[in-house]
Design goal:
Elements: E1 2-7, H1 11-18, H2 21-28, E2 32-37, E3 51-52, E4 62-63, H3 65-75, E5 82-85, E6 92-95, E7 99-104, H4 113-119, E8 124-128, H5 137-144, E9 147-148, E10 151-152, E11 154-158, H6 169-180, E12 209-212, E13 215-218, H7 228-237
Parallel strand pairs: 1-2, 1-8, 7-8, 7-11
Antiparallel strand pairs: 3-4, 5-6, 9-10, 12-13
Helix pairs in contact: 1-6, 3-5
Length: about 240
């Protein structure tokens, strides 16, 4: 089971998407587990305040460092060894946790399919969702030196898309989606992962002909021929 830990102020913004459809089923079948930690639970003021004005001036507010760090540390208390049966000896063995912390930064390394494959090799992935003008940079520096049960945490910085968003929740959900769908058994068949086969951005289904406002729209003939070589050529070139 791959465990995702979201550090977010807005759990309610994430749950509807992550609990639906394929991701919801992946949780039900214990392919993944998703937990949440709210930095507000780790502040030492009575208002639950997690932001302050930026040093040096400027607009907006900045999330304070320690509530974020404490939330990450709390999340990783569940990063325990996994038990797996050795295929040769049939004995149960313990696999040490392999932990990744994801920090979303506009302009950082682009999150790609190959990065999603890489993350699938971890046991625990913490996704830090910033808000406002961002998170105090000292939180990032502390996390880079964090250890969990003597296991060194690996920190990745990613940009999910080129646009700057209001918060890190949308990038975090995109990462969870991309990583989860690549796990064995989540989509049923490995060939359902489009980027691992010849696929096309143009897809068609029944009926063969659609009539709309006097104009007829047809499925390309090549897709109806049964000629797999020509179909693959069409899917790769669009011709």
């Amino acid at each position: 089971m791959l465990r995702f830990h979201l550090i977010t102020l807005f759990q309610e913004a994430c749950e509807p998407y992550l609990n639906a459809s394929i991701l919801g089923r992946a949780q039900e079948t214990k392919k993944i587990k998703i937990t949440y930690q709210n930095p507000r639970a780790f502040v030492d003021n009575k208002w639950g305040k997690v932001d302050e004005r930026p040093y040096g001036g400027g607009p907006g507010m900045v999330m304070t460092a320690l509530p974020v760090v404490k939330a990450v540390k709390k999340a990783l208390t569940s990063a325990k060894p996994l038990t797996k049966k050795n295929t040769k000896t049939k004995l149960l063995v313990k696999i040490p946790p392999k932990v990744a912390v994801l920090w979303f930064v506009p302009g950082a390394k682009a999150f790609t399919n190959s990065e999603a494959d890489k993350l699938g090799g971890f046991t625990d992935i913490v996704l830090v969702c910033g808000r406002y003008e961002g998170i105090d940079e000292r939180a990032f520096k502390i996390l880079q030196s964090l250890t969990v049960s003597s296991i060194k945490v690996k920190v990745f910085t990613y940009a999910v898309g080129e646009a700057t968003l209001t918060g890190g929740e949308v990038p975090a959900m995109a990462v969870i989606d991309a990583v989860t769908r690549r796990l064995p058994g989540v989509l049923g068949k490995d060939e359902s992962i489009e980027e691992r086969r010849i696929a096309s951005h143009e897809v068609f289904t029944r009926p063969e002909k659609i009539l709309w406002e006097g104009k007829e729209y047809k499925v390309p003939k090549v897709l109806q021929t049964g000629n797999h070589k020509k179909i693959e050529e069409f899917r790769s070139t669009g011709k």
